[in-house]
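Per reviewer request, we include the raw input and output of the structure prediction for the construct analysed in the revised manuscript.
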Amino acid sequence: MYYTCFLTFLVQIVHLRPDLAGVVIFISIAWDAVTDPILGNLSDRPGVDKRKLIQKSTLPLTLSFLPAWNGLGNTLFGDGQAAKMIFYTAISMLIWLFYTICTIPYYSVIAELTEDYDERTEIRGTSAFINAFCIGLGNILPALVGVGFITYFHVAGAISVITVVTRLICAKSLKGVYRVRTAAPGEKIERGLGVVSTLRSFIEIAKLRPVRIFLLFVLFFLIGNSMLQSNLSYMVVDCIDTDYNSGIAVVIGVLVLTMAATVPPVTKLAEKTDRRTVCLIFISISAAGIAAAKLIGLDAQMGSFKIMLVLMPFLLGLGLSTFWTVFYSMSYDIVEPDEFIHGKNGARRESIITAFPQFVQKFGSAIGILLQGVILSAYGYDTTAETGADAATFVRPSEHIVNGMENVSTVIPAAVLAVSLVFLLLYPMTRKTYDLLTEQLKNKREGKPMDTKGLEKPGKF
């Protein structure tokens, strides 16, 4: 809901300029990116219970999420652009802080439960399948805004209830499976936030070649896709030229069904080949199709049917589903190279390593949304003069601005996705490399001689 709707909410309801709305989201998500590794470092410490972090962060998250989705900024600050920007930035930073406290332990715990390549893929595939429908709720429910008395605030309330219930179920499910790590003999337990040690760990981990390449793939993929996702409302109304409520319902419906339908074949193909191969196949199709949509035209019709209401969310869902099905499993694969090179006495850094790609992922998403706002402003799109009941409606802008909106949904993100694919091609952590590594890692843990054949240059590590 935040990624897809918040920029639109700030522009149409709060009446912030698109570039300032982009700044709100950029600062908030960048703040989230910065807190990811710090929380990862904290949750890796002996004695820290990841289940409790998930449980205790849930209520503060919902209590900060709700105020973000009302027009209080208009009441307090009127037309004051700077004041409203600061107000909604502060609220958003609280949302992402509590989100981080919950999700870093949630994602990293899988790497502690299993080192099996296919089991990690299967677990994350199951999660991605469920996630597709949850993403659907986060997009479908806001489409009800304006129907009767329903506002963004009501939708945020419904999503908050879902959040509390599902996170408590998640924490409960780990009982008896997850074990809190105890300190190894002679291990010193760090105190405080550990900012210096977090930075030191980041630098150490970033020296691994697979890490650097993977992070660049993640960065460019999320820049491209967040531009597409945050521009959906404008794409539906202004580029495809259809009614918002009916158009967005079709788009989100196709998006959700595509994501759900893509997860099983992606999971199975990743088990038969590897995660890099499946990403190359499906994301290439997505990027090529999005670029081709510019040539076809987003307003293309077959009779009275608007083709792009189905094709664009299908292409977006194909790439998104593939990425999120394997992203965290690929992140876990960094744990073993780090232990192989840097680990002592079996020490592992699951949480901080899981946080590192998320750190980059959040920056990628924030940059993409920021760029969308900046590009729309550069094309002259501005709703700050709109007031009253008509402020929340979409008034069709000039053809010049519509062309800019179309570019943000097609050729610009497609070019960025193409760059991400180049780095994916260079990514060395295939199934073969992972199997070789875990075999030698077992020898290291048992104090046996290690054979690094197949792991040396051209630069596996």
